[in-house]
Amino acid sequence: MRTIKITKSVVEKLPNPPQGQDFYRDQTLVGFGLYAGAQSKTFYVEKRINGKSVRTAIGRHGQISAQRARERAQEILGKMATGINPNDEKRSKLVRGVSLKKVYKDYKEVRKDLKPKTLYDYDRIMTTVFSGWQSKAISDITKDMIERKHKKIGEENGPAYANLAMRFLRSLLNFAISKYEDSKGRSFILENPVKRLSQTRAWYRVEKRRREIKSSDLPIWYETVVDLPNTILRDYLILLLFTGLRKQEALKLEWEHVDLTNKTLTITDTKNRIPLTLPLSDFIFELLKKRNTSRDPDSKFVFPGQGKTSHLVEPREAVRRIRKLSNIEFSLHDLRRTFITNAESLDIPHYALKQLVNHKQGNDVTAGYIVSDPERLRIPMQKVTDKLLSMIGIRQTWNLLIHGEDKPSKPRSFISPAALLAQAMEGKLK
Questions:
Q1: d(CA 191, CA 335)
Q2: I want to staple 276 with a disulfide (CB 3.0 to 4.6 A). Which of 9, 207, 307, 358 is the partner?
Q3: Do residues 124 and 153 touch, judged by C-beta distance below 8 A?
């Protein structure tokens, strides 16, 4: 390490080494120096703090003058003499200035387990609800801002969306509290500001939806569905009702996960990350078998689509059409709720019901010892199917002799499910 007088003219004459770095000390100001690399020359200060050598950069030659670098060196060395580590100050300043956009970017890099639908919702919230906050330092987001924003979202987008947006923001800030710390491991955010909503009881009360398709409406709904000209949509909706699957689980169902020999289907990508294997009731087995005989060999999906996903996407237009024709309000999730409600009414064992709909068992110790077996669910699944068929007005006796009937009639109270299914498959139900 050479000792030089650090001035503009001297620094400009110093060569840049082809590799590595050359260090130089100032002749007059102890602790002030410069190091030259292949592409640049950088001013720095170095001093021992609590027995440990600490070095920090001041700035590059060309971006800061030698004289200004000397002045900054004197200021920094003065602080270091009192035990202040300038690197800690830099880190704290950098951390305190981290933006909401940066936090979300880091959050997504860590949370690789987020499902596409969840990411879509989060991206939408960031670009709409928090569009004006993205460049804002999270340390500048106050409790008052949270309270005002929550109220505004509720007025403009509804209570449920306001709560969703703030729960998302709370997760981001909790992540930031854990990730961004100073050199001593201390977070620069002492308390999540979203906590204000709990402290003031400002969260909106949103009643959980309890809507299902009533038993009196089910025949009309079903008749409207089987009249759909699009057999893919028709079969998709029927499958949801008779299995209780979530809409995305059924949309992405692949033929390789349908076992017609053992009469089961498997969902590998579920909401709770626990794979689900369900037994097929006779009715759904016939539906899938019929679909399989007429399937497109080039499509791996049970319900193929024309878009980039190659599978059916959420059929909003079909749902609207059925609502209008049947005069029955429903959502795709209402079909799952209808399945669960009717399953519960049959006094199906608690653990069997939870396994049928793939609900988490929570902290139930006993549930942790139960090994899921689709064969143990076959009778409960068939019971639910039988009840739904009865509510629709279809006799629960399989008569495959009339499966290929040329001119089937309108379904009445005692038409077999096989006959009705055959009519539906042929699109002849009028």
A1: 41
A2: 358
A3: no
Beta-ladder partners of 61: 64
pLDDT at 362: 54
Q: Residues 264, 266, 268, CA angle at the centre, nearest 5°?
A: 175
Per-position DSSP letters for 144-209, written without gaps between them = HHHHHHHHHHHHHH-HHHHHHHHHHHHHHHHHHHHH-B-TTS-BS-SS-TTHHHHHTT-S---PPP
How big is the chain, counted in residues? 430
**DSSP code per residue over 218-287:** HHHHHHHHHT-S-HHHHHHHHHHHHH---HHHHHT-BGGGEETTTTEEEESS-TTS--EEEEPPHHHHHH
What single string gives the DSSP state of each residue in 18-44? SSS-EEEEESSSTTEEEEE-SS-EEEE
Q: How far apart are CA 278 and CA 125, in angstroms?
A: 35
Phi-psi region of 49 (alpha: psi -120 to 50; beta: other; left: phi over 0): beta
Give the Cα separation of 303 and 254 in Å (integer): 8
Residue 119, token pair as written in the block:
């990411």
Task: Kindly provide the b/e burial profile for residues 335-368, where b requires at least 16 CB atoms within 10 angstroms of the residue's own CB.
Answer: bbbbbbebbeeeebeeebbbbbbbeebeeeeeee
pLDDT in tens, 86-99: 777 677 676 677 89
Are the C-beta atoms of residues 118 and 269 closer than 8 Å to each other? no
d(Cα 282, Cα 295) in Å, to the nearest integer? Answer: 20
Among 215-224, 312-321, 413-422, name the one with the lowest average pLDDT: 413-422
- Structure token pair of residue 93: 């300043």
Contact indicator for 392, 414 with CB cutoff of 8 Å: no
Residue 262 exposure: Cα atoms within 13 Å on the Cβ side:
13
Q: Report the distance separating Cα 236 and Cα 118, nearest Å.
A: 23
> Per DSSP, which regions of 271-333 are E strands?
276-279
